[in-house]
Q: What sequence folds into this?
């Protein structure tokens, strides 16, 4: 499938997944830019909170403390802007900007002028509820889009507002998901802070203010402030990364930055491949001689005469007849292995006879032993001489009747179970799958048909000699299996390479699955977008590889 740029909003969940992946792969120097600015402000805020809550001299140094906290806030916003610009540079595959004193001064001036109003407008927006997501996104965009350029304050506000009103549904869903996640982070942090002093006292014997105050320490305002600050420090880098991605994709609708970034990556990859190919070619030219040519000719003759087509077809039929490949097929389409001795009907009754015999023989032996015990060891209850032969005959008759009744019940259950399906099969005979889809259309998705119908369509196209389309139908069946196992998420804007990276990421604990899917993507792209001619052997190898991928994904 072709890689196209999304003109609509990317989904909130895929955006969060991409942001987590991007944040996980950031170098430590970029993360240090965030925490160098954020941690001093968090520590200063907690100290100011505690001092203003408990100190008797709080009115004397309240003004100085507030001024210092304001300077730390400007410091934090400046470094967060640097952090966002580093991420944007990695997305655009460009070098990070040089941070001169004039650029940093412009960032500090603009951030202090705009972010200060957030202390008033954000609580009001949360109070009215509806504009809360827009207001929060606006102030995040101000941090993301400020690159320290000489543009005016009004230009930055217009750019931030343009990105704020773009894709509101994605913004609300993203904040809803991260809000629920942040609640769990807050609860985990609170639980850790509450249990840590108790564990310290139990294992080390050190008493703290928390252990002395008991459960009431959990309701202390400083304790709650520390829990909120801890949750903010864990969640805010992800929020900054997500809003950087939103602004990058939103600006790309007009500037095409995403396409330029992809082309830059392709140019670097192509240059590396060409250089490697030249090095390999220059090494191999000196080593090729006549003996190598004769060896290649002999290997070609051996490959041509090694495997006959009849043996290959028989091997493929034997593999496809295995239950792990045929259990999902309809009953009329299942491959049945021929029995060499007798059919399934006789085999079933042989099995039923052995099962009844294995059940009845222990019961008969038990009744016989019981009868011997009653006859030999309890003479006082011995029946009259004329009635000795009645009990064995009665026991045998009961056993025969029980066996007949069991067989009749099993036969009736089988008849009742298979009769409706037989009627439906007679009324609607199985028909081969017809090509109702135009597989040459790149807009077709893997969920257009069920998995078994893709496989039937691939077999039909291969029988007609249309191996290129058959490979694509077989690949769509594999994508359906991966989507059912939640290893990929089908979307119109994704390319095969994006699905490959998604499988690599989600199946990181199964490297063999990712390698097999990468091989399949390479072969399909060469066949679909290239000029290579596909024969039956190529399709057979590709189909066997898809079966292995499906087995690994389900395992």
A:
């Amino acid at each position: 499938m072709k890689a196209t740029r999304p003109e609509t909003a990317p989904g909130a969940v895929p955006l969060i997944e991409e942001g987590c992946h991007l944040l996980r792969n950031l170098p430590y120097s970029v993360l240090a830019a965030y925490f160098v600015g954020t941690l001093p402000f968090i520590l200063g805020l907690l100290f100011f909170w505690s001092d203003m809550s408990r100190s008797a001299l709080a009115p004397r140094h309240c003004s100085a403390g507030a001024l210092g906290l304001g300077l730390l806030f400007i410091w934090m916003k400046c470094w967060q802007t640097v952090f966002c610009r580093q991420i944007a540079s990695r997305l655009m595959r460009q070098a990070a900007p040089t941070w001169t004193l004039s650029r940093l001064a412009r960032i500090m001036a603009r951030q202090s002028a705009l972010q200060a109003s957030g202390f008033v407008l954000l609580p009001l927006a949360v109070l009215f509820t509806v504009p809360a997501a827009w207001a929060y996104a606006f102030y995040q965009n101000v941090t993301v889009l400020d690159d320290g350029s000489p543009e005016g304050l009004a230009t930055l506000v217009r750019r931030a507002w343009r990105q704020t009103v773009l894709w509101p549904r994605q913004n609300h869903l993203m904040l809803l998901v991260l809000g629920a996640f942040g609640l769990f982070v807050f609860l985990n942090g609170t639980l850790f802070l509450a249990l840590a002093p108790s564990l310290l006292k139990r294992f080390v014997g050190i008493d703290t203010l928390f252990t002395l105050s008991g459960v009431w320490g959990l309701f202390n305002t400083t304790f709650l402030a520390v829990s909120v600050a801890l949750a903010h420090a864990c969640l805010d880098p992800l929020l900054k990364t997500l809003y950087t991605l939103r602004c990058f994709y939103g600006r790309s609708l007009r500037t095409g930055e995403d396409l330029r970034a992809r082309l830059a990556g392709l140019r670097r990859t192509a240059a590396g491949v060409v250089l490697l190919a030249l090095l390999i070619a220059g090494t191999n030219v000196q080593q090729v001689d006549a003996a190598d040519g004769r060896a290649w000719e002999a290997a070609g003759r051996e490959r041509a005469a090694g495997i006959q087509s009849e043996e290959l077809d028989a091997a493929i039929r034997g593999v496809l007849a295995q239950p792990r490949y045929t259990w999902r097929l309809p009953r009329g389409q299942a491959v049945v292995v021929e029995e060499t001795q007798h059919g399934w009907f006789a085999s079933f009754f042989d099995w039923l006879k052995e099962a009844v015999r294995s059940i009845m023989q222990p019961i008969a032996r038990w009744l016989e032993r019981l009868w011997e015990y009653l006859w030999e060891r309890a003479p006082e209850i011995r029946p009259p001489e004329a009635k000795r032969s009645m009990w064995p005959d009665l026991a045998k008759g009961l056993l025969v009747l029980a066996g007949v009744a069991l067989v009749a019940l099993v036969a009736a259950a089988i008849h009742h179970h298979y009769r409706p399906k037989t009627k439906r099969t007679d009324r609607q005979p199985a028909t081969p799958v017809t090509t109702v889809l135009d597989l040459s259309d790149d807009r077709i998705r893997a969920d257009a048909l069920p998995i078994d119908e893709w496989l039937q369509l691939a077999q039909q196209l291969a029988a007609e000699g249309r191996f290129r389309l058959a490979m694509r139908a077989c690949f769509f069946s594999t994508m359906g299996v991966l989507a059912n196992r939640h290893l990929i998420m089908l979307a119109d804007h994704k390319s095969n390479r994006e699905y490959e990276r998604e499988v690599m990421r989600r199946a990181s604990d199964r490297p063999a699955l990712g390698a097999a899917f990468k091989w399949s993507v390479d072969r399909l792209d060469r066949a679909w977008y290239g000029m290579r001619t596909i024969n039956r052997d190529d399709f057979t190898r590709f189909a066997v590889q898809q079966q292995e991928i499906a087995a690994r994904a389900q395992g």
In short: Residues 446-554 form a domain with the Four Helix Bundle (Hemerythrin (Met), subunit A) fold (CATH 1.20.120). The two ends are 27 Å apart (CA to CA).
